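Fold this complex.
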Amino acid sequence: MILEVKNVRKVFPGVVSLDGVNFQVKSGEVHGLLGENGAGKSTLISILYGVYLPDSGDVFINGVKTEIKSPRHANKLGISLISQQFALVPTLTVRENLELAGVKLGEVERYSELLEIEIPLDRAVTQLTMGERQRVEVLKALAKNSEILLMDEPTALLSPREVDAFLTLVRKLADMGKAVVFVTHKIREVVRVADRITVLRRGRQVGEFRKPFDERELLEAMFQTAVVRSRREKTVAGDTVYRAENLVGERVFDSSVTVRSGEVVAVLGVAGNGQDELMELLSGFKRVRGGKIYLQGFDMSGKPYVEFLKRGVVYLPEDRSRALARELSVLDNFKVRCTTNCREKLREVIEILDIDVPDVRERAAALSGGNQQKLLLAREILLQKPTVLVASYPTRGLDMETTEKFYKIVRERCGAVVLSLQDVEEAIEKVDKIYVMSRGRITAHFTPPYDFDQVAEAMAA
Amino acid sequence: MALETIASEALKSGVPILLATLGAIVGQRAGVLNLGLEGVVYLSAAVAAAVGPPWGFPVAIVVGVVYNLAYYTLANDFALNQILLGLAFTMVGYGVGSQIAQGKIGQPIEKYIIHGVEAYALAIAIALLVHFFFKTRLGIAVKASGDDPPSLDLMGVDVYTVRKLAGVVEGVLASAAGGYIILFYYGSWADSLPMGWGSLAVITAMVSLWTPTLAVGAALIPSTFVSLSYTLQHYLAISPHLLHTIPYIAPIIALTTARLLAKSARYQPPKWLAKPYVREERV
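Structure:
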């Protein structure tokens, strides 16, 4: 089976999301779709899955011109999507979810044996790890006799070990004769798993690459100019700015974190191990149930969030929509913190962070996820000088170039930084100290030089 | 004597509350908070009174289902505010219902003779049906529609259809309750007789933590107090107006208690309760 689009164009108000893109995938291959945020990957996937119709250009299946009208229609044609947001109802069990999707349990079991993956049928989806949920999704797609599997940033929520297992699974699927479209912005993963790679940049197709891949070449294609990945420089750590001792929350127990002036510290862990709550506690957004927080020597334990803000704490929540008013304009969102010369200041930060904003009067919701994140960073970090920055997954959804900028800016502007991160490599490359969190407790901490395996091991434990 | 009478009365008046509660459970599980259920029960009761036996009951159900579906269409397909809709559907139900049944005021309506125990046993059987309904594919889809409609949509199941089907089930059960109130319970019509039952059901659905088997017990809380309030009038010197508020106060207390006790994930309110589902578009 061959799925192909020719000369596809898709325009959203103010943004040309795709322009003259050709793309093809056939049975037995993994076709990587690589690009930074806003490159048009998600739009292309949405067209292949029938969510959007292209403004111009055609879709062909086995050489026959076809209009994919809806996701349901795509399913009938043998196309499935494994999206970042799993199509699983968390409160139902795996079995109920499979029934709901109209999938034969026998088929699911057959494939799970064939691929040697186990799934707990009678557990509620909430109790599964992200990796397990994804495997359920894959089996669901297979049991529906899908020939083409579209995977949108499939490794975004997985732990390092799960990523490894998942990439192996993707190769197996191709060897079984399935066609896989693997969307990602992570070069290393796509190089490992793909047979060929198409790179998109700002809605245009930069090129199609075949094995053997050259990582450098791909990087240049993604960013036009090569990004130099900076290494963490040796920082001279100053006095302790921030100290949290034996914090207790709902799902966090007995966790201590110390940050010295000028340091960037990361909390690592598999999703759902309490990092989100720890960030809320550290920022003062949520009151601690036990333990002490000292900020520049002041006892802040039990103080309300406004007191933290007054002392220069900045908190970036994991969910951007909590910090941005999606229905307000970009400018109005900026004005939440800005009082004078806002238009000019906004223009400045848009320049610095290269935010893709067609019009500052546009709703914040109309920006792509990565650009929303940049806007938030601009408002919270560039506009003021935080004494302590507490951020939940601040670089998730950012491309490499912006990630580089993010670290540069926070080092310049923030007194001290605590981040929760997911990517072990990123942490090793960028931060001065790593805490590993597991089941609500900090179970290990590392200082440079780091050993990747040791850190990954601690996360898996 | 009093105790037996109260028990029998409580069971008899518990039947319509249980039926409407089961309906409200299905609706609320699907993510729709139908405050207009009061109007549906009232209107179908009025239709049953106006038509009278033998056709009053089935006609009441047809009218009730249509009325209920109108609510579901406006609340979901048109995404209108459910609080506002609920108020409107209640008031329209009162107005139209009173008009339809006007001619029956003061006239006896032929009443089916029933016994409390048998009637309630039948209602329990229906509760079991609803219990097993939630295990079918459609039932699972109903639960998913209340907990996570975006996922349901992604699976290729139409959320609006699922919610309307839940609306049909709710409509049948609520209007059966309305028909019962006139044709089995009172055997007469007065404007105030079918009032309050639908609202009670909305609360009782929450008290029973959206679980049909628990509803069997929960429906008896207000009905016991309804019959008590009639009986007590003979013995106590409390204003009947105040006595009549007890059936409403008791479920609120029960609701508070239930919420405090129910920590298990199984008994959490549907996450999308009272929220219309609109597929998210980037633009």
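Chain A is about 35% helix and 25% strand.
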